[in-house]
Amino acid sequence: MIISSKAIKKFTIMLFSIVLISMGLVACESTEQPPIDLTLVPDDIGQTGDGLLKENLEAIRLAYNLPAVSAMIIKGNEILEMDVAGFRDANQLDEVTINDRWHIGSLTKSMTATIAAKLVEQGFISFQSTVSEIFPELVGEIKPIYKEVTLAELLSSTSGLKRDLSGVWGSEWKNRTESLIEQRQEWTRRMFNTRPATKRGKHLYSNGGYTIAGHMLEKVTGIA
């Protein structure tokens, strides 16, 4: 598989975004970042199996001044190649390995949105499906202002919901024993009983909204 120079430019931009979000590493001492040197990025990434994946990842890492990057080439259900380059921390004290676990953080949002688009395409749900349509059992238990909030508004963080429930990182949610579906149902009920943080239609980044969007998807498919 040969990737063109045009594709690699898109690839580097994608990697840059992913790594900035997903790498929970030690911050650099200086807040000033050196300019990006795209001359370090090869024009042609090469061919699967040529043994140059690590070398090319290192070039991308250096071009964007990143602690570490990882990548894999997949065809169907088979991993053709997988490699890493860089260090576990910004001080370059410990090299990253292929067996390390990577914190994916808010990349779950893009995954949730992708799944939502596929389910819309397959007819399970609509982007205009409302909270009251998907969760009729919650009507009367949540603030009326949220009844007509749509899947699209939850995915675009324009529902008016605040970022998180208070205490989201505390012991309560870590120590709950109910199933994940039951926990998300309780989260949904509580979130829709909070005061709006902004007007509906105005963007405000919301982790809680995406949790609810994911719960809408598992509700219509029956798959957690």
Q: Please report the distance between the alpha carbons of the first and last residues.
A: 35 Å
* Average pLDDT taken over every residue: 80
In percent, how much strand structure appears in the residues? 5-15%
Query: What structural class should be given to the helix and strand makeup?
Result: mainly alpha
Report the sheet with the most strands, covering strand number, pairing sense and barrel closure. 2 strands, antiparallel
Topology, number of strands = 2
Radius of gyration: 21 Å
> What order do the SSEs take from the amino end to the carboxyl end, as H and E?
HHEEHHHHHH
Helix count equals 8
User: What best-fitting shape do the alpha-carbon axes yield?
Assistant: elongated
Strand order of the largest sheet: 1-2
Domains (count): 2
What are the low-pLDDT stretches, counting only 5+ consecutive residues below 50?
Answer: 1-32
What portion of residues is helical?
Answer: 25-40%
Name some characteristics of this structure.
224 residues, mainly alpha, 2 domains, two-stranded antiparallel sheet, elongated
